[in-house]
């Protein structure tokens, strides 16, 4: 015994909790796990102190006919996470009820019994969970944080880093960071307490980018980043992954606000991508266009932004017959004799072009980025109620299927010469095919998603600790296999895979892919607890994992127009799993509780609309 502490050992306390007589501080003191003076916890969840393995067998034998497992919790009285687990788990009556039903709950103070802690932590170090035989151990050394706590912590960081003057989440250079916007949109769809602030942050960011130089006001499309904090001077490289992700952002922005300028940005971005990045015959999209371009015809000399920048005199000469148009454009685009950029390279030039040498496009076709573009087209088709965008998404999906190696399903062609796909190739394409299923209900996309997920699991899954490696299991060129957890210019493969597995579980529950989602979240739990803003997309996936909703639609009622009506009622980006069912009724399910919406599609849509209007 390390400490003595006076407590009121009255009969009421003793009846509520056997730990009232315990000398161990962890098992006695209030506000620690399984506290002696916490009637709601202990009356609902009887806990057995550690009394040795033979002693543990006694209560286990009493419950042998119920096939209960032991839940062994090791901690100490000043442990912060013990207190967190107490508040979030053991004091929660719903969780206590589940644990009482499934486990014999045993508590150990590791400061008094370090030998017990060492034995079981050594086992946890060697293994991270497996199937069990009778009386063998099942472990979980990492606790998945609650989705609300994680999202609040992530939101707080984003709110602190947000630029109230120009929008965005950093100083110069400033990147769009759509992954941050995705989380904010999710919080709005979820009816979060900080939805109003999230909308303000989103609108300022989307407005500033659309009005700034990062948006190409002539050829359309977004540059990769701004060299300044004002979104004024772009880095002139344009990447497909930005176009696809920002389509999602502006489509959601239009869906939430009905601001017509967001609709125009969506339309113009798609126009740019199809005109300048799409392979006209195949339907796939090239990876992007170079920041450098030739300074003049017949010259091999290149300069950053040469295609996009003009001197004041060059522009004036173009408008020499229409000074009124020059004055109008000059006011709109801030033409100045000394140039309207601060970059030394671009000194004396204006960011505008009407006709110039051809830009230099990258000729790589990357599966992951095409997946992002498919998702962007699907979101745009829903938000703008434009079936042409969905048709284009289907065409791009068909392109990936055509060039996906038919003889070896482990390979997705990433360039002119086949390159084995990485985790992002699989994750982003699977997500895009699930999005295609949502907008078409064509089971082809669902079945291919499952096939690809099985390949991804075999090639990238960590059987010991959980989570997905970035490189393949058969790649001998990598010294050590790493797992990426940070969401940056693109989301990381693990973040997207969590959501993919939850969605696939809604269609194939017997396969149980949600187990992979859970173990991935467990693996990254420390990061989600301490630094969730490093991975806002994974924080969003945790919310999806915890709060997803299922809507089952009778197959006999499915029509293209009806499906689009459903998609327009559901907040874009909300945690929905749409399922086709042979049942004749529409069914709305959340956390195991289902509501019958009736068999008439009109009535079902009205009830669904009422639900989201609350």
TrEMBL record:
Native source species: Lepeophtheirus salmonis (Salmon louse)
What are the residue boundaries of the Spermatogenesis-associated protein 20-like TRX domain, all occurrences included? 60-130
The record, for SUPFAM superfamilies, names: Six-hairpin glycosidases, Thioredoxin-like
Q: What is this protein called?
A: (salmon louse) hypothetical protein
**High-level lineage:** Eukaryota, Metazoa, Ecdysozoa, Arthropoda, Crustacea
The lineage's top-level taxon is: Eukaryota
Q: Which GO terms describe its biological process?
A: carbohydrate metabolic process
């Amino acid at each position: 015994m390390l400490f003595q502490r006076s407590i009121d050992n009255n009969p009421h306390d003793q009846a509520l909790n056997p730990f009232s007589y315990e000398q161990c501080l962890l098992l006695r003191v209030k506000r620690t796990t399984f506290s002696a003076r916490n009637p709601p916890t202990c009356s609902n969840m009887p806990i057995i102190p550690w009394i040795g393995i033979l002693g543990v067998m006694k209560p286990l034998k009493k419950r042998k006919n119920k096939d209960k497992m032991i839940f062994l919790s090791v901690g100490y009285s000043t442990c912060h996470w013990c207190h967190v687990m107490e508040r979030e788990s053991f004091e929660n009556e719903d969780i206590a009820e589940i644990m009482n039903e499934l486990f014999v709950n045993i508590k150990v103070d590791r400061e008094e019994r370090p030998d017990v802690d060492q034995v079981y932590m050594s086992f946890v170090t060697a293994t991270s969970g497996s199937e069990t035989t009778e009386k063998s151990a099942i472990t979980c050394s990492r606790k998945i944080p609650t989705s609300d706590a994680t999202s609040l912590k992530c939101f707080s960081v984003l709110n602190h880093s947000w630029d109230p003057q120009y929008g965005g989440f950093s100083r110069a250079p400033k990147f769009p960071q759509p992954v941050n916007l995705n989380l904010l949109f999710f919080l709005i769809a979820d009816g979060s307490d900080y939805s109003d602030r999230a909308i303000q942050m989103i609108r300022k960011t989307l407005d500033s980018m659309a009005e700034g130089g990062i948006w190409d006001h002539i050829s359309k499309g977004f540059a990769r980043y701004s060299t300044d904090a004002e979104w004024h001077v772009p880095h002139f490289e344009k990447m497909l992954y930005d176009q696809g992700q920002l389509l999602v952002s502006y489509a959601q922005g239009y869906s939430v606000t009905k601001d017509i300028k967001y609709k125009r940005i969506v339309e113009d971005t798609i126009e740019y991508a199809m005109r300048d990045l799409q392979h006209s015959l195949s339907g796939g999209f090239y990876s992007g266009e170079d920041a450098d371009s030739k300074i003049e015809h017949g010259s091999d000399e290149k300069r950053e932004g040469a295609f996009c920048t003009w001197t004041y005199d060059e522009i004036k000469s173009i408008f020499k017959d229409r000074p009124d148009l020059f004055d109008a454009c000059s006011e709109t685009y801030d033409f100045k004799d000394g140039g309207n950029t601060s970059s030394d390279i671009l000194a004396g030039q204006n960011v505008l072009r009407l006709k110039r040498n051809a830009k230099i496009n990258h000729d790589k076709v990357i599966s992951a980025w095409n997946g992002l573009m498919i998702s962007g087209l699907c979101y745009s088709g829903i938000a703008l109620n434009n079936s042409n965008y969905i048709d284009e998404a289907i065409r791009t999906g068909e392109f990936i299927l055509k060039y996906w190696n038919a003889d070896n399903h482990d390979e997705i062609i990433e360039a002119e010469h086949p390159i084995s796909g990485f985790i992002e190739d699989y994750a982003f394409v699977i997500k895009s095919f699930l999005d295609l299923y949502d907008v078409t209900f064509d089971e082809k996309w669902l079945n291919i998603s499952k096939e690809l997920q099985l390949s991804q699991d075999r090639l990238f899954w960590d059987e010991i600790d959980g989570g997905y490696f970035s490189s393949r299991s058969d790649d001998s060129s990598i010294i050590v296999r790493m797992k990426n957890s940070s969401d940056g210019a693109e989301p990381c493969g693990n973040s997207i895979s969590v959501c993919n597995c939850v969605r696939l579980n809604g269609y194939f529950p017997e396969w149980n892919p949600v187990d992979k989602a859970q173990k991935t979240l467990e693996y990254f739990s420390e990061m989600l607890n301490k630094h969730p803003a490093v991975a806002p997309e994974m924080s969003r996936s945790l919310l999806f994992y915890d709060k997803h909703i299922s809507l089952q639609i009778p197959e006999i009622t499915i029509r293209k127009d009806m499906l689009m009506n459903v998609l327009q009622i559901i907040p874009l980006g909300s945690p929905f799993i749409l399922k086709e069912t042979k049942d004749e009724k529409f069914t709305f399910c959340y956390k195991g509780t289902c509501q019958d919406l009736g068999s008439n599609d009109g009535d079902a849509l009205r009830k669904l609309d009422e639900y989201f209007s609350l």
